[in-house]
Amino acid sequence: MQQWTIIIRVILFMLLFAAATLRAGAPVYVVLWFDTEDYIEPASDDAALRIAHDLAGLGVRATFKVVGEKARVLEQRGRWDVVRALALHEIGFHSNFHSMQPTPSLYLRDLGFVEGAAEFERREGPGAVDLQRIFGVRPACYGQPGSSWAPQANPALRRMGIPVYLDEGSHVGLDSQPFWYGGLLHIYNMGRFQLRAPLDRSETAAKSNEHFDQAAAELRSRGGGVISIYYHPNEFVTTEFWDGVNFSKGANPERADWRRPHRRTEADAERCYGVLRDYVAHAKSVPDVRFVTAREALELYGSPAPPAVERARVAAHMAARQTFLVTETGALSAADMLLSLLRMPPEVVDGPATRIASTYEGASIPRAAFEHAKADAVSFIRGNQRLPAAVWIGSGKLSIGDFAATLAGAGDGDAEVLVRRANLEFEKYFSNEPRKAFDWPIHPEGFSAPELLELGKLQGWTLKPARLR
Ligand SMILES: [Zn+2]
């Protein structure tokens, strides 16, 4: 009898333990963001206010990515009610002028990495400064207008003190989850984890909820992750986009000639607010789901600082392929590993600014010449916070990829270092479709920017998955 009691107790305990494990599932974080950009139709101000209030009522904090000109217009219109309501959520930055020409991809396509970063800061920086003045906070994140993406934004954003890149696009992506790139936490290219309940009724509420539940269940089973949901306040009050009616195909009318977009009826706007409210309420009711802002997401993922990993493991990986390495304690980018192989302390650096091919023809490098090359690489990285495009071996050059592979494969005592060729595996995480990736009604017709995708790939040295702490 006593034995039976013990067995039953053990079984009960195991059942309770299993139930507790299932209940405390992996966390699913939802980043809900609003591109707050329409500075033409004043009804969009009211839409932002209404959404901010509705979400506060549901106990949800969202991220409002505000355009610099939108913030200035709110100030001019005396809409401090809107400013205060948005500031209770989180403020992000959505470019200085959004769709006024030229947009970022257009003005950065013909510029190099360093010059482009300075130009981005010159054009966009004042918008972030205005946001800070009007909202009283430094924006937590940035996302480009439309598909007007450019990798030169990354170093500029770091200098501007903006640590997160929050948007959607196909230019770069990693497993449809957050990643580190250019020293910024990217919530980008989220694939099946980028969701929304469509306002245009192209899908029933039940179907939208079902898609959310499926995404949440998949993330729970994978140990947690992020779902990205976005809208524009203007969508709730107009049937066409404010910029489409003014700045399409590269058009740039003067302010006096701006047209206002077509309005939804009051009843239709109410219906749209209802779609959002019901969707957010549903998401919030799903077990283990938590809404977070961009800054809270950054806290969850920590910093891009790499974990300490044995040198032999790093060398074996980098000799074979230059791409990130995922370990039990975190991920290292190819740049992290190159610094570690050069015995440099970890720091955020950019990838090379250009692509330079190797000209060094020998099959091996004398040890002394290789040590000079290493010292020169260290000096360049220290001085520029950027990887060199190539490293000199006397009067010949090794591309940074060939240099990294050679360094990783070099034995400490070798009198001659065998030259190895690069295998830049990280390049597969970038789009190869320069037209499709930049497709946006506001760009000039047929706009294509292979130069920006190439520059983006060069920055793939800094790419690695982000890991929940
Ligand atoms: Zn936008």
List the helices and strands and how they pair.
Layout lengths: L1 H22 L4 E9 L6 H15 L5 E4 L1 H9 L3 H8 L2 E4 L10 H5 L4 H23 L5 E2 L10 H7 L4 E3 L12 E3 L2 E4 L6 E2 L9 H17 L3 E7 L12 H4 L18 H20 L3 E4 L1 H8 L9 H10 L4 E3 L2 E3 L1 H8 L22 E3 H18 L5 E4 L2 E4 H10 L6 E3 L31 H9 L5 E2 L4
Parallel strand pairs: 1-2, 1-9, 1-10, 2-3, 4-5, 5-7, 8-9
Antiparallel strand pairs: 6-7, 6-17, 11-12, 13-16, 14-15
Helix pairs in contact: 2-4, 3-6, 6-7, 8-10, 12-13, 12-15
The chain binds zinc ion.
Zinc ion binds next to loops.
Task: Explain what the structure shows.
With 469 residues, this protein is an alpha/beta fold. The protein is 41% helix and 14% strand. It has 16 helices and 17 strands. The strands form 5 sheets. Strands 1, 2, 3, 8, 9 and 10 form a 6-stranded parallel sheet that branches. A 5-stranded mixed sheet has the order 4-5-7-6-17. The longest helix has 23 residues. Zinc ion binds next to loops.
Features:
469 residues, alpha/beta, six-stranded parallel β-sheet, five-stranded mixed β-sheet, globular, binds zinc ion
Short characterization:
41% of the residues lie in helices and 14% in strands. It is built from 16 helices and 17 strands. The protein is globular and about 80 Å long.
